[in-house]
Automatic annotation (TrEMBL):
One of its GO terms (molecular function) is ATP binding. This is Thiamine diphosphokinase. Signal peptide: none annotated. Its EC number is 2.7.6.2. Keywords: ATP-binding, Kinase, Nucleotide-binding, Transferase. The lineage of its organism: Bacteria, Bacillati, Bacillota, Clostridia, Lachnospirales. One of its GO terms (biological process) is thiamine diphosphate biosynthetic process. Residues 134-210 form the Thiamin pyrophosphokinase thiamin-binding domain. It comes from the Bacteria. Coiled coil: none annotated.
Amino acid sequence: MKRCLIITGGKLDLSFAGSFLGQETFDKIIAVDAGLEAVKTLGLEPDMIVGDFDTVKPEVLAYYRRMEHIVWDTHQPEKDETDTELALLKAQATGCTEVVVLGATGGRMDHMLGNIHLLFPCLQKGMEAYILDSQNRIYLIDKERTFNRREIWGKYISFLPLTEEVRGITLTGFKYPLHEKDIEIGTSLCISNELVGEEGAITFTDGVLIVVESHD
């Protein structure tokens, strides 16, 4: 598995990021526009820097321009894709099979929602993709999954339809179980569930779900 870390320009708890990165290893680091400032504060040297650089401080750009090993992927501000989407495309193009995105939540809601939707083409192409912050781990599933209490991000697990309908949801090992339930986009039925034991599982027959593992 080839793991990629993307740090983009949303709000990022640097204390959380430092602690998380101290426990993880990545094969590639991609910094995205203003996320480069967090990268510098965290003492990281990215392999690639992506963006139109309309929101990053000039002195931070100058600092990394001196590093010859870094690949720069520079774009005009007027473009069809966000900088985060461009970074995800680069991760896919370089053969990454798992990507973790920091700095994709907080700040502007349009960017946060857009970033969650960017997980969908990753799912379609078979690349595991996760958005992380200090309280949440967000990802998509289109098939059954087992959850282990020791591995989930927090106390709560929520499931939200990304597609118009998700059919045949069965939840076992959860505080609020379901049996072959169809849910449509726009419902809050599967918000804030919890495991009752060490493991729980979800199965469903059709559709795509947003999974949010979280804690207060």
